Amino acid sequence: RDTNPTHNFKTKNIVIRNDDAITQDNNATVGGENLPYNQSRNKLQMLVSQQRKHLKGLRFEDWFHVALRMSTSTSLLILLILWTLVICAFALIYKWVDAAYVGTDCGLGPLSYGAYFAFSLETCTTVGYGLPGSTNAFFENCPAIQFAIYLQMVWSMLYNAFLFAFFFSRLGKCESRASQVIFSNKAIVCKRDGKWELQFRVTDIDAAHPIVEAHVRMYARVGTELIPLRIHTPDDILGGTLFLSWPTVVSHQIDIHSPLHPSIRYPKYKLRVGNYGLRLREADSWIANREEIICPICAETYGTIERLRKHVAFNAIIERHDGVPPPGSHQAVDLKDLVLPAAPTMPQLRENFPREIVVLVEGIDPLMSGTFQALQSYTIDDVSWGGSFADCVYTKGDGSRYMVCLELFHKLKHVPNEASYQFPPESSTAPPTDDEEAKSEEEVKRDEESPPV
Fold first, then answer.
1. pTM of the predicted protein model
2. Which residues of the chain carry a pLDDT beneath 70?
3. How far apart are alpha carbons 151 and 53 in whole angstroms?
4. Which H or E run includes 82?
5. Which DSSP letter does residue 54 get?
6. In the chain, fewer beta carbons within 10 Å around the N or the C end?
């Protein structure tokens, strides 16, 4: 993990080489903001060295997509040059075939190379012939010319089909659709329901035509690794789907399993099962999707520390009733020792913040049915420590329509002054006292007696 709190993230280039001369720029970023409104051009700042011949061979295997990546002016120039060279080549073939039939009038006659080029151009474009010779246009006396015309027409049809597919692919590709998916220029690290979260906002400015099957992914660049981050909202177990026509706040919960969480030390008992390299979430344990809190005596697992305490207290009562000796039993466990490490403070999160957060939103354009990706990245300079996003959706006119105010899309509210910011107190992990339990029972009873709203 990166533990340097004084970063400089202004450089917008990263070079990854496949040879022995590896250069690593720790201040580089994978994605740069190079479009208006603080948006990315969706081009990763990454290069691959092609010094080895077999790497060039791999690109040759995928020559069509390599050609599609060329600029429009470059691809037009290359295709025009190729088309002209083939016409010139067939002009030489016609001249050579016509000269080979000595004493036979093939209908072309002894002409200059310019005339043969014009004949080749007429054949390729099928505009019709104006032959200089006295024979008809079927070339019965020279079957080699007929065969040459046949080959050129076959090549012309295939080339025209390729041009159609090439330009349709260039015009129909949906990569440019990603430029209308905009991200907030700042990410936020804040507390929500007592848990730290990393948040950003995203929406589609073409709101009237919703993107199909939009979903989001997040990555943290820690050193030279790109580590996936679990999405809390929208839930990545459900696919992390988005409705981009409405500005949506995407959040990653910085829990104990997050790469953004600093290293911890348990007070007495290590009460969590290891993740063994998997990307887990604490929230899944809270809602009993799985259980990660382990009993230090019998190794049973529970979803929360409160359930573990109840388990230990209940088994201690049974063991005392059955006359079980306290050593090695649940009776030997003090409930005050069953605590989890305290939540990290904001300075600790800043010190452990990765060099870059990379965000990907994928979707399908409803017009062309093509998949595209929108990319944005955040460094520590792009993070607001505290606050929340301002409301940017309002009703318009008589209230029958909604309007997204892009002037407020990037705006934050309740942002604390770092110099005078008072960090919120950490939630206590000690077991509740008898007075607290009695108070909570009274609150529950009062809520049950109160009529529903």
1. 0.70
2. 1-38, 41-43, 45-56, 103, 107, 109, 128-137, 417-453
3. 34
4. helix 72-100
5. H
6. C
Residue 352 host element (H or E) = helix 346-352
- Distance between CA atoms of 224 and 219, rounded to whole angstroms? 12
For residue 292, give both structure tokens: 């990660």
Could you tell me the two tokens for 75? 């691809």
What tokens does 267 get? 């007070």
CB atoms near residue 440 (< 10 Å): 11
pLDDT digits (tens, 9 = 90+) for 340-382: 888 888 888 998 899 899 999 999 988 888 899 999 989 999 9
Residue type, 326: P
**Cα–Cα distance measured from residue 274 to residue 293, given in angstroms and rounded to the nearest whole number:** 10
**pLDDT score of 151:** 92
The closest of 280, 261, 263, 260 to 220, measured between CA atoms, is: 260
- Residue of 350, 377, 353, 356 lying closest to 26 (CA atoms): 356
Q: Do β-strands 187-192 and 383-385 pair in parallel, antiparallel, or remain unpaired?
A: parallel
Q: Of 309, 311, 308, which is closest to residue 293 (Cα–Cα)?
A: 308
Q: Is 204 in a helix, a strand, or coil?
A: strand
Three-state DSSP at 151 gives helix
The structure tokens 């209940």 sit at: 314
Tokens matching residue 133: 């010779």
Beta-bridged to residue 371, according to DSSP, are: 364
